[in-house]
From TrEMBL, chain A:
Belongs to the flagella basal body rod proteins family. Keywords: Bacterial flagellum, Cell projection, Cilium, Flagellum. The gene is flgF. InterPro entries: Flagellar_FlgE/F/G, Flg_bb/hook_C_dom, FlgE/F/G-like, FlgF, LlgE_F_G-like_D1. This is Flagellar basal-body rod protein FlgF. Residues 196-241 form the Flagellar basal-body/hook protein C-terminal domain. GO terms for biological process: bacterial-type flagellum-dependent swarming motility. Residues 81-146 form the Flagellar hook protein FlgE/F/G-like D1 domain. It is found in: Bacterial flagellum basal body. SUPFAM superfamilies: Flagellar hook protein flgE. The keyword NAD does not apply. GO terms for cellular component: bacterial-type flagellum basal body, rod. It comes from Halorhodospira halochloris.
TrEMBL record, chain B:
Its main location: other. It comes from Halorhodospira halochloris (Ectothiorhodospira halochloris). Keywords: Bacterial flagellum, Cell projection, Cilium, Flagellum. This is Flagellar basal-body rod protein FlgF. The gene is flgG. It comes from the Bacteria. The keyword Ubl conjugation does not apply. Coiled coil: none annotated. Residues 215-259 form the Flagellar basal-body/hook protein C-terminal domain. InterPro entries: Flag_bb_rod_N, Flagellar_basal_body_rod_CS, Flagellar_FlgE/F/G, Flg_bb/hook_C_dom, FlgE/F/G-like, FlgF, FlgG_G_neg, LlgE_F_G-like_D1.
Length: 246, 261
């Protein structure tokens, strides 16, 4: 039997997988700071005895789209958006350093600053602890000032948010959705990164693009299935032609 | 079942929860002292099918791995404790807090709850109670023959008595505040309850330290901004629609396959 059937089958399988990726992006169109996954098809030639005349298609998550998302003003003192490039540093559950663009910060019951999905936000001196009974102000360069409600005339500089800007080519998205350096190396702090408090960065998923991509994947899938049925018809025809006249 | 369908389903779920939050905000747009909620979306874990850096052949390496996402969800909701509008009502038992703090309310089970709703009334014993009939803590009793009640910005409650030049002091309204007011648990009837995440209450006098001052003859309205909520609603609806579309498209793909293969 011809291998056309198998090649068309892999094509269909991976189109469906590409649809899975695309659905993931659409499902996170409202997640703050979410970075869209990019997908691409990859040509996997057949190796082994014989001529490499066939190539299977494989779908890969080719990486992450790091373009900034839209910024909404919320006027909430603990919503922080990064202007242009850069990342917040958070502590992942395993204790390692990870990066996020998610800026919907909040205080936990111990007064520690966390992101909306519960990761500790890192300052230059470790996790940022907000003193009780104070108002917070976050400056453009990430300096966090606490203004005690009892003594507004004596603000305390709490810490400064760690802001980094590693080369996007070296960053990968991990299983927990956080961004990490390719080989786990900690990034250098970058004094050029600017933040804006009272604003929140949304997801960078482009709905229109994803919808078109969705149609594209669906049609491609149908084409592969069509190829499957064509292969079957060819097989049938040839077996009929070769049938011994009885 | 096909994972692509389930991913889109998590999106539908999350958008629907977000719509519930928006609807609740809109439903409470005229509730005194109501604080709006915000839904916090988060992406779910990724599954690694193939590790980045794996080999695609003897001499070549995959540029990236294959990691499939599993969707999104609403991780939680958060109360936004920003100040609501102060509305003048000219009713002498309406009290608004301008700034931080909560009124303390004694619930029938003996627990203290907290509220920003200052539309107080008198019960049959002349005590200040909430619209739900729960006592203000510490209790303030207005004598039957009082001609007028005055509440100062520092929370002092006085009454003008007949045949008495000096007003009689009836009590003091105290306020409570929390390290993390977003951690308070809303329990309905405009009341909040202390939780482990809110921290313990700090009690003080209005106008002192960090506490806001109180204002007689005014009420704090909800901090829901209708325009903002309507925009949220449109955004949620469009998110819901695209996820529905994703489900139907994936379904059509599967249908096409079962019909043709």
């Amino acid at each position: 039997m011809d291998r056309q059937l198998y090649i068309a089958m892999t094509g269909a399988k991976h189109s469906l997988q590409a649809q899975h990726h695309n659905n993931q992006n659409l499902a996170n169109a409202n997640t703050p700071g979410f970075r869209a996954d990019l997908d691409s098809f990859y040509q996997a030639p057949m190796y082994g005895p014989g001529f490499p005349t066939r190539a299977y298609a494989e779908e890969l998550r080719a990486g992450t789209d790091f373009t900034p998302g839209s910024i909404m003003t919320t006027d909430r003192e603990l919503d922080v958006a990064i202007q242009d490039q850069g990342w917040f540093v958070v502590q992942a559950p395993d204790g390692s350093e990870a990066y996020t663009r998610r800026g919907d910060f909040r205080q936990d019951s111990q007064g520690l600053l966390t992101t909306g999905d519960g990761h500790l936000v890192m300052g230059e001196n470790g996790p940022v602890s907000i003193p009780p009974d104070s108002n917070i102000e976050i400056a453009d360069d990430g300096v966090i000032t606490a203004i005690p409600r009892e003594a507004p005339e004596a603000p305390i500089e709490v810490d400064r948010l760690r802001l980094v800007n590693p080369d996007p080519a070296e960053l990968v998205k991990s299983e927990d959705g956080l961004i990490r350096h390719y080989d786990g190396e900690p990034a250098q702090d970058d004094a050029q990164v600017r933040v804006r408090s009272g604003a929140l960065e949304g997801s960078n998923v482009n709905m229109a693009e994803s919808l078109v991509q969705m149609i594209d994947h669906a049609r491609q899938f149908e084409t592969h299935i069509k190829m499957l049925t064509t292969a079957e018809e060819n097989e049938q025809t040839s077996s009929q032609l070769l049938r011994h006249p009885s | 079942m096909n994972p692509a369908l389930w991913v889109a389903k998590t999106g539908l779920d999350a958008q629907q929860k977000s719509m519930q939050v928006t609807s609740n905000n809109l439903a409470n747009v005229n509730t005194n002292g109501f604080k709006k909620d915000r839904a916090n979306f988060e992406d779910l874990f990724y599954q690694t099918v193939r590790q980045p850096g794996g080999r695609s052949s003897q001499d070549t390496m995959l540029p990236s791995g294959l990691m499939l996402g599993t969707g999104s969800r609403v991780a939680g909701t958060e109360k936004i404790h920003s100040q609501g509008n102060i509305q003048q009502t000219e009713r002498n038992l309406d009290v608004a807090i301008e700034g931080k703090g909560f009124f303390q309310i004694l619930r029938p089970d003996g627990e203290v709850a907290y509220t920003r709703d200052g539309a107080f009334q008198l019960n049959e014993q002349g005590q200040l109670v909430t619209t739900g009939g729960y006592l203000l803590e510490p209790a303030i009793e207005v004598p039957q023959d009082a001609q007028s009640v005055t509440i100062g910005t520092d929370g002092t409650v006085t009454a003008k008595m007949p045949n008495q030049a000096d007003p009689e002091e009836l009590g003091q309204i105290e306020l409570a505040d929390f390290i993390n007011p977003s951690g308070l648990e809303p329990v309905g009837e405009n009341l909040f309850q202390e939780t482990a995440s809110s921290g313990a209450p700090v009690v003080g006098m209005p106008g002192e330290d960090a506490f806001g001052s109180v204002m007689q003859g005014a009420l704090e309205t909800s901090n829901v901004n209708i325009a903002e909520e309507l925009v949220n609603m449109i955004e949620t609806q469009r998110g819901f629609e695209t996820n529905t579309r994703a489900i139907s498209t994936t379904d059509q793909m599967l249908q096409f396959m079962t019909q043709n293969v």
